[in-house]
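thread: overnight batch results

M.L. [08:02]
morning all. the overnight job finished for the chain we discussed friday. pasting input first so we're all looking at the same thing
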Amino acid sequence: MKRTYRDDRGNRVHPYVPELASLLRAGRIDRREFLRTATLLGVSAAAATAAAGKILNVLPAGSAVAAEAPKAGGLLRCATRVQEMTDPATFDWIEKANIARQVVENLTVTGPDNITRPHLAERWEVDEKLKTWTLHLRPGITWSNGDKFNADDVLFNFTRWLDPAVGSSNIGLFAAMTDSVDSGRKDANGQPVLEMRMRSDAIEKIDDLTVRLHLKQPVLTMPENLYSYPAALVNRRFVDEGGDFSRNPVGTGPFVLESFEVGGQARLRKRPDYWGGAAYIDELHYYDLGEDQSAVMNAFESDQIDTSYQVDVTVIDRVRGMPNVQLHDIVTAQTAVARMQVDQAPFDNPLVRRALAACLDPAAVLAVAHAGFGAIGENHHVAPVHPEYFPLPQRRQDYALARRLLAEAGYADGLEVQLDCGSTSGPWELAAMEVYQQQCIPAGINLKLRVVPAATYWEIWNTTPFGFTAWTHRPLGVMVLNLGYRSGVPWNESHYSNPAFDRALDAAGAILDAGERKKAMEQVQQILQEDAVIVQPLWRSIFGATNKRVRNFSLHPSLYQDFTRVWIDGAA
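M.L. [08:03]
and the structure it wrote out:
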């Protein structure tokens, strides 16, 4: 007879939860892994925290000092790029998502602590096989246009996300709800082009506040996938009313968008009737100060802004010298990868790709380009901070190997390639590639750097044969691998397609036991590393800054911003 486990509200949750508790009790997993997995399986964060405290005999921390009471009112000013915000499903910059996030929301929220909690979905249940997910939506939520939030909104969004014509990166995250079908197009060799489309039975409306997702394979990470920034929900009338969020910003969130100008400003004011309780601040303004960090620093010093999207590593000493500004930092899976399109010469030859990888000394790049703040990369896009990371033997710079591989590939006299660099996440990107450029010389590789403006790079990021692309933090390595390296997904900028990799990724993403999942990731990481799709020099720590009167601010590893519970000391 199977044991039924219920959370603090009496809701039935996954039968693996008691085993998870046993693993914590035996010391086979730590508290963070217990909390992360238990909440994914449907246990509330409060119940999971209480259970972990009881198992570890750790009482909730008390404080002799009363918490500072929030103050309502005031204006929060943020420096960030103000970009087009047409369709949240196709967002490709965190900055535009940060502005939109104050208006439109996700079904779940993954916090800076890597724990995923309910949001528009009040709770969820998953079957023992991790293939049937039932989402219970929060009642009493009203869109800013007066519509009641319900299951029709969820079905509408999933249907759009998984429509290849929309071009949403969410297809990669929700691949288990799709099938590969003939698109009716032919490739250059006359072969049918397959595309991923939503399966007819992938989503089911149970009632107005209940939706069930049916997956073709097990997925543990569904709640975390739902907090990806292009997975914010738009109103079910979105397409019928023009399909342009910036012109018709209907949302369930704590703010409404009052004015918006690309490259200029975005102004928002709080919704008094927000379902989660009105925000503390009255107004939120975003100012586009361009890509020059000195302009942002000048704005901090002259008290023209209260916070910014991020602070580049090159100016952190300047921030530390500002008496009115607080520096924040966090270890992340933020990175950039020099990725090669494997169907474009000379990168269609794996020997060439391996030669380029053999030239890299990641420690030297990290030291010069990011002042040592972060960790070295390993060319497989899974970070040490990811819970499923498997430590592989560190590869060393090897010029003899690089020259031998080039000779076998037909480039005994040397190779010249061009890499496009847009420095979309800061000047450290160009600094990193300048170091790597020098590292390639002893192998006979002339790496020509083409520097392009950040905005221009995002116009060519998925078409240039060789480019250095920034990728933001995701709480799990499998998430970014599903987004960027699974066969046929929209953000697969390298055009990489390896069925063995896809199968290994599917298998790892379905394993509940943390130790076994790490073991499975060894194969996933090795395949990507051996196929030499990317040259990845580093993982970077990130930095943020706020005026010291800004309270209750937390720097999110994904650079996501949520200002609902931020308040300003001294606000009128």
